[in-house]
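Notebook entry, structure prediction.
Reason for the run: the old model in the group folder had no record of what sequence produced it. Starting over properly, with the input documented here first.
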Amino acid sequence: MTNTALVLIIGGLAVFVGAIVQGGVGFGLALVAAPVLTMLAPDLMPGAIQVANLTLPLFTLAMEWRKVDWRGVGFAVLGRLPGSAIGAVIIVYFSVYTRGVFVAVMVLIAVVLTAKALSVPRNGATLASAGFVSGITGTATGIGGPPIALVYQSAKGPQIRATLAMFFFLSSVQSLLVLALVEELPPQALLTGAVLLVPMGLGFLVSGPLRRYLDGGKVRVAVLVVAAASAVALIVQNVVTQTLAP
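New structure, fully documented this time:
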């Protein structure tokens, strides 16, 4: 089986599962799919996952756009601008392995700190800071959801999903432009991302029951579990890749 077939089959399955998670929790597509796609085709990342990151939020916004916290999105996007510039420097000068471990460790630290407190204060400073970190990690690896999700963990499910969706849409546009400017967005990455939109759409369609379950008051736990599990998986994936590298 060719590497392209593996990317489309195994990567497509990862995108399908990630879309189910994000459809219910508000984030998780990149957390689930980016490590798999990075292992299968590192030269196509993070461009390929950013195509999906750009598209999936539109499905959520079509259903829950009235719940967007526009003030929060504004602060987060403002903070993301300088973060994206740093992310561009990282993607040019650091290896995929280094970037992956960096992101995973940061996510785990955020989860531990958050789990010890009842909630992270949601104000202009924390939102801009989360946007800044998201700009770094999202541009460098395609994984920018955890910082913003952790700030919104105490909000209700519809508000989390709608606000994160708007932030992800704007962030993905920004990241794709930055990747193009630093010549890290090959046409094959865009094509692969476009093909992966099919399993992404199917995953969102079957996420309805998960949304209803999590809206019963289980969103915060789900956010922490998904973030922590994906960070551990990203560390394992990068360590294995580095070990097997010739």
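Summary: The chain has a mean pLDDT of 83.
The old model has been moved to the deprecated folder.
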